[in-house]
Amino acid sequence: MRTPRVTINNLFAGYARAGMDPQHWYENLTDEQRLGAQLDFIEARACLLERLPYDEGAGIPGNVQNEAKRLNRLVQQTMAAMSQGQMIQAGGFMLDIGVAMQKISTHLTAAKALDVTEELQRPRSAGGKQTAIRKQEAAAENIKTAARHWHKLAADGRPERVRAGVIAQIMGYPVGTVRGWIKKAGLR
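Given the sequence above, the corresponding C-alpha cells read:
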C-alpha cells in the first residue's frame, strides 16, 4: 500500500498563521511575533520533511529533502538576521524562503505527474491477465483431449479426413477449431 501523497499545500498548510487560530493570531501577537511564529512553523515542517527516510513508495522525490534542508537553513539565517536587526538581509532571505517552498512544490507536482503518467500506462484490468491465463490453460486441456480422441479414432481405423469432424461433434466445437488443436498437437 502506498503512503498518502504529501503536497506543499498540506505540508505547509496554515503557515500564514503558523497553525494558530485566527483570534489568537490577530489579537495577541505583534507583527514581529507573527513573523517569528511563521518562520518557526516553516522550520518545523522543513525539519520533518528533511528527516523523512527516502522511500520511493512515499511519493516524495529525493531532491525534496535537499530543498527542505535549504529551506531550513534559510529560515535559520532569516531568524539570525532579524535578531541582529538586519531587516533588509532578513527580507532577502524571506524571498529565498518563498523560492525554496516553490521548488519543493514543483518537485512534488512533477513527481505526481509522473505517477499519473505511470498509472495511465498501467494495464486497465488485472482480471484480463488472469482470464487470459485461464483460457490458455483451457485451450491446452482441449488440445490434449482432442489428441486423445485422435489417437482413439486412429486405433478404431477411422480415416484421417473424418477424424476432425468426429472430434468436433464429440467435443462440441467447430471443425476449424479442432483442426487447429490437432495441428498444435503435432498430429497433422
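Confidence is low (pLDDT under 50) at residues 1-5. Try to locate this feature in the C-alpha cell string yourself.
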